[in-house]
Amino acid sequence: xxxxxxxxxxxxxxxxxxxxxxxxxxxxxxxxxxxxxxxxxxxxxxxxxxxxxxxxxxxxxxxxxxxxxxxxxxxxxxxxxxxxxxxxxxxxxxxxxxxxxxxxxxxxxxxxxxxxxxxxxxxxxxxxxxxxxxxxxxxxxxxxxxxxxxxxxxxxxxxxxxxxxxxxxxxxxxxxxxxxxxxxxxxxxxxxxxxxxxxxxxxxxxxxxxxxxxxxxxxxxxxxxxxxxxxxxxxxxxxxxxxxxxxxxxxxxxxx
Amino acid sequence: xxxxxxxxxxxxxxxxxxxxxxxxxxxxxxxxxxxxxxxxxxxxxxxxxxxxxxxxxxxxxxxxxxxxxxxxxxxxxxxxxxxxxxxxxxxxxxxxxxxxxxxxxxxxxxxxxxxxxxxxxxxxxxxxxxxxxxxxxxxxxxxxxxxxxxxxxxxxxxxxxxxxxxxxxxxxxxxxxx
Lengths: 256, 178
Prior knowledge:
The structure holds 2 protein chains of 2 kinds.
Chain A: H1 2-21, H2 29-48, H3 56-68, H4 70-83, H5 86-91, H6 93-107, H7 118-125, E1 141-146, E2 149-152, E3 163-172, E4 175-183, E5 189-195, E6 205-209, E7 212-218, E8 224-230, E9 233-238, H8 244-251
Helix pairs in contact in A: 2-3, 3-4, 3-6
Chain B: E1 2-3, H1 7-11, H2 13-24, H3 27-42, E2 47-48, H4 53-73, H5 82-88, H6 96-110, H7 114-125, H8 130-137, H9 141-160
Antiparallel strand pairs in B: 1-2
Helix pairs in contact in B: 2-3, 2-4, 2-6, 2-7, 3-4, 4-8, 5-6, 6-9, 7-8, 7-9, 8-9
């Protein structure tokens, strides 16, 4: 009896293992495209920094060929191949560069027509509030959310004493952006904006704070902005005259 | 030491996605998790100690999950309906029933205690050897064997039980307020 039960159990587990190993669950195309674009962008950045061992058109050709597929794939593949044949490549370099430029505009980070840039979101975060301050909740959050992501209550001394003074809602490019404006006793003001998913193209200077990746931007007037991700949403905090360290501290994770 | 080729992310994307789905229990969260992992991995050059790029990437995925997604993935989740799955399965010739079974399979894995889940994901879904999985998870091969045995037994049992696979246990995670 016991043995029969064990045999049945073994069979059941063997079927499960076979099923797991034969699983047909490929990544969705939109994910594949965004990963390929991010990889291409990283390789481009590495190349600009002189760290890449691959040629400039090789990365563009390979990544874009995979990213775009279909009728435009030939262009990317052709560019990748041409880099390995320098003499042939030299003759068509001008045309190739034009194609690469066009494809980069169409495909690289974010890759979506209408997606705003992080500095554009930061500019919105710097505007004055258009609605009253939200209520504070007992769990350290405010009674307002951006694309489902709740805003924090930063009014405690540990968080720097930043009280929420108002909110605003904007449409930037193709995204809804929700902003909470905070102020401290020194009269400084910061805006915390959350842009709806999917995440915006990433740029800026990479830093880590509290183990979390963040990106620092400098706007045209020298104002600093810090960007990070929360559950796929792009978060930006910016404040005129507020230094980078303060913004990074605000953006860093802290205990509830 | 060799440098991680960023294209490894593209090469191993399907396996990373399946691992993420099993860790999170939902396709949408799996996509977010993979994207966050990609962003972290690409943020700076990465060096490998040998030829273990897949194990490295799975480790990055696991770390990202543990630091950013674990709390979110424990939120109660509605069981998928056939219509939900049919709508999500955009592949040509996609079969809603098979897709629903796949969804249930991932939900059952996601309901496992974390250490069992990680062992099963590393070996059965990603295809690491017991040795590689032990290195990745910082334990012994014998422990991996035990965890895997229990994990498989629990998943097989969950799939045979009536109703949706169980939900995850545990609470009291670190929450970030930012």
